Amino acid sequence: MTTATRDDPADVRPTGGLLRHRDFRLLWAGQAVSSVGSNVTTVALPLVAVAVLDAGTFQVAVLTAAAWLPWLLIGLPAGAWVDRLPRRPVMVICDLLCAAAFLSVPLAALLDRLTVAQLLVVALSAGAARVFFETADQVYLPVLLRPGQLPEGNAKLQATQTVSYVVGPGLAGLIAQLTGAVAALLLDALTFLLSAVFLLRIRTREPCVRPSERSRSLSRDITEGLRFVVRDPYLRVLTVFGAASNIGLTGYQAVLVVFLVRELRLEPGLVGGLVGVMSAGGIIGALLATTVARRCGTARALLIAAVLTGPPALLIPLAAPGVGLAWPALGGLLIGLGVAIGNVVKGAFRQTYTPHHLLGRVTVSMHLLNYGTIPVAAVLAGAIGARYGVGTAIVGMTAWLALTPLILLVGPIRRRRDLPAAPAAS
């Protein structure tokens, strides 16, 4: 049981849309700047490894894996801890840890002490902070918003995050072209500091967790969250689909920078620009997600999103210098469109469908498999690329991604127009 204590309701939940909701605006702004920084990292860190340290294909893939490995190592206990702790302080601490981690890279480079090993430690540290931040963020949003506001809130956050997929890589490529890849990580550190400032200005007080809930067994809390996901037919199939699609998504993305730099001989600025264009479809998807869900139904919207995410991936291996870059750009646009629609619908569904006292554990239980496959996929793609060539790795991973929509045909989602509002047992 929890007891909610809030500020003036007129301040916390005003009428007139979320743009007039002060605390949501602050959360939104914080996530916007940190998302831009995180997506600077997705290009800047591999570029540092390739351009500064002359790292190989497998080493670059391992860097991607290291950023996601913490979901496997600490994901489950993190979910249980987040359900016991105030979420906003957790998020602020995570922002500050990420800022410190990324600041260490330019400092080490300045002292001529930068190594691939340090980049791995930075990726692992930032990944661990991300586990706690994303879990706390998913639980914190329903504290700020009413259930009816969650779809709009998720859509706005997803749209901003998707914009960061375009802006972040573009900035990373531009900065790397002008001043070097290491300098791009300074921008990343600054964005996390700004995010912490925005979060600290939020006024809404969270529900207080009673001492009896903190004293419960951690293993019991973890098991309770896992059991809820495994037994629920909707959350179960969404988790399996997310895990399978992430294998393909992360697999090709882990070696994409190497493919573009070493196979197609693109300059860093063009690499960042192309990766940004490939992500631009997500902006459209996030803006359309609530409309698609309303007109087609939330269950059907998930199926539409899956179709957009899968088969278009087959366009990416057709990449070639010049006009041939239009193929990965188009494939990436459609994938981004599908991923954004699916994430908005799935996020709002999970937040309203799951009992709030279980939300942190359910979220991280789903992410354990969803994100836990990512380091495996990155290492696998790196191994294939090192052994058979990076082009072969791109083909294999995109082919896998193209088949993943078939998973959603197993289970109840294909038979419904809309997803249920609550578990059947309720």
Overview features:
mainly alpha; two-stranded antiparallel sheet; 426 residues; globular
List the helices and strands and how they pair.
Blueprint: E1 2-3, H1 9-12, H2 22-52, H3 57-82, H4 87-110, H5 116-144, H6 150-179, H7 181-200, E2 208-209, H8 211-214, H9 218-231, H10 233-263, H11 268-279, H12 281-296, H13 298-309, H14 326-353, H15 359-388, H16 390-403
Antiparallel strand pairs: 1-2
Helix pairs in contact: 2-3, 2-5, 2-6, 2-7, 3-5, 3-9, 3-10, 3-15, 4-5, 4-7, 5-15, 6-7, 6-11, 6-12, 6-14, 9-15, 10-15, 10-16, 11-14, 12-13, 12-14, 13-14, 15-16
**Strand residues, percent:** under 5%
- Contiguous low-pLDDT stretches (5 residues minimum) are 1-16
Largest sheet: 2 strands, antiparallel
Helix percent band: over 70%
Oligomer: single chain
Order of helical and strand elements: EHHHHHHHEHHHHHHHHH
Helical/strand content category: mainly alpha
**Total of helices:** 16
Gyration radius (Cα, Å) is 21 Å
Distance between the termini: 17 Å
Total number of beta strands: 2
Residue-averaged pLDDT: 84
Task: Name the shape in a single word.
Answer: globular
Largest beta sheet: strand ordering: 1-2
Describe the structure.
This protein has 426 residues and is mostly helical. Helices cover 76% and strands 1% of the residues. The protein has helices at residues 9-12, 22-52, 57-82, 87-110, 116-144, 150-179, 181-200, 211-214, 218-231, 233-263, 268-279, 281-296, 298-309, 326-353, 359-388, 390-403; strands spanning 2-3, 208-209. Helix 2 (22-52) runs antiparallel to helix 3. The longest helix has 31 residues, at 22-52.
